[in-house]
Write a structure and sequence with these properties.
Strand order of the largest sheet: 4-3-13-14-15-10-16
Order of helices and strands: EHEEEHHHHHHHEHEEEEEEEEEEHEHHEH
Largest sheet: 7 strands, mixed
Strand content: 15-25%
Number of strands: 17
Shape: globular
Number of helices: 13
């Protein structure tokens, strides 16, 4: 996937440097193309190129679109400033504020702006510029928000969504060997600092007795002072937000290998971007029933299990949102047939944009049940960033249970790798203040 926050002094860059990790990555100048029903929009890191792209692809409402996006970018700057203070919501301890008090004193205008828009959705801002019925802009925003905020503009909270929509200008990045490279570096650092790693050991039981957590897994059992659950999986009441009534999406995914000559193709005279987001045609009814668009495809070098680049191959990953329920109810044959129909439909949508069939070496598909088998859960991506989930009732890194913390996509600030990393930082700070600095 695409990483954010790795720009100099960026939110993730700051954490990585504090951990003394050497993470190889590449800035993506042209990370993505978004294919709408009647036009194609290229996302650029460079602000001037992005402004020119918006003017070119949305000539019908050019001035209004520019004014809307200028305001969106301004709000995102204010949100970024607050996020960089390290504030953790909901605030229940003084240190949860981070550096927000001093930031508020030096940026009163920004704070007033944020207060004004705190309960707005993205659609509210569209209405302000009379753009709520302008379909090209609405489609563009919905496609990006479904990936970043797990909902569309009608429900997406404006404040975090503004940052998600504008963050490409700060920079988006491809991590060498994929996001797993960051996981491996973190694992190595844990060991260097005296920690222990136990791989592929699913927790079977988690109980709290005599002020200790007793953890049982297939490979190891023991007692611990503090437990951090970053899996999104429930191990009993209060151990996760998975048991809450908040909706979350599942995913349908295809992993494929393509011949590397695929790279030589162009899209309308432009080089291929890292990713494509495609609004599927209405004729693809299977993509509007069992699953829900957009079709999201990424292209990157292929690596083997040892982390070595595979010659003459590239990896393509395609994903689409899917409802969690219903998959278990199907018979084995029906499940297999639906799986193939969705896979074929996703390939057809990409084929309309760029030729992949002539380069395909191998492909396999996964449904929410596949995620359940390998990750212990059918949902991915956390909870939608609605005003309730993001602003009025955000989910704390503190669980209702003693000495147990919940981090990752379920907790504040919400979905995405960058947000998950920030939630880990918030939990670490709370643990240090509560358990280590007494």
């Amino acid at each position: 996937t695409i990483a954010f926050g790795l720009e100099e002094q960026g939110l993730l860059d700051t954490l990585i440097k504090e951990l003394q990790l050497d993470l190889p990555f590449q800035l993506l100048q042209h990370p993505m193309d978004i294919i709408l029903s009647d036009r194609r929009i290229s996302i650029y890191q460079n602000q001037k190129r992005w402004d020119e792209e918006l003017q070119q692809v949305m000539p019908e409402r050019q001035k209004d679109v520019q004014a809307f996006w200028k305001k969106l970018e301004q709000i995102s700057e204010y949100v970024y400033g607050v996020t960089a203070t390290g504030v953790s919501m909901p605030i229940s301890r003084p240190y949860d504020l981070g550096k927000l008090p001093s930031h508020a004193l030096t940026h009163p205008k920004a704070m007033l702006h944020l207060a004004r828009y705190a309960t707005w959705t993205v659609e509210d801002l569209l209405r302000k510029y009379h753009l709520e019925s302008y379909e090209p802009l609405r489609q563009l925003i919905d496609v990006q928000l479904m990936d970043a905020a797990q909902t569309d503009c009608t429900e997406a909270a404006l404040l975090p969504s503004s940052l998600a929509l504008a963050i490409y200008r700060r920079g988006s990045f491809y991590i060498e060997k994929g996001m797993g490279q960051l996981c491996e570096l973190l694992a190595e650092r844990i060991v260097e600092l005296g920690g222990e790693l136990i791989l592929a050991a699913t927790v079977k039981e988690l109980t709290y007795e005599q002020k200790k957590w007793h953890v049982t897994s297939r490979k190891r059992s023991g007692e611990f002072d503090i437990v951090i659950n970053n899996t999104g999986v429930s191990f009993g009441k209060g151990t996760s937000y998975a048991d809450s009534d908040s909706f979350s999406w599942g995913a349908f995914r295809v992993d494929a290998l393509l011949k590397d000559s695929f790279w030589h193709q162009e899209l309308q005279g432009r080089p291929l971007p890292f990713a494509l987001q495609i609004v599927p045609s209405k004729e693809q009814t299977v993509l509007f029933s069992d699953v829900h668009g957009p079709v999201y495809a990424t292209f990157q070098p292929a690596y083997d299990d040892q982390g070595e680049k595979v010659p003459k191959e590239i990896m393509m990953t395609i994903s689409i949102h899917a409802n969690e329920d219903g998959w278990r109810k199907e018979s084995k044959d029906a499940y297999k047939a639906i799986k193939q129909q969705i896979t074929d439909a996703m390939f057809e949508e990409i084929q309309k944009v760029i030729n992949i069939k002539d380069y395909l070496i191998y492909e396999e598909s996964g449904t929410p049940l596949t995620y359940k088998k390998y990750m212990g859960k059918t949902s991915v991506g956390g909870f939608p960033l609605t005003v309730r989930n993001a602003i009025t009732k955000p989910k704390s890194v503190r669980s209702p249970l003693p000495q147990l913390y919940i981090v990752g996509e379920q907790a504040f600030p919400g979905p995405g790798t960058l947000s998950s990393a920030l939630s880990g930082y918030h939990a670490a700070r709370a643990i240090m203040h509560t358990h280590c600095l007494k």
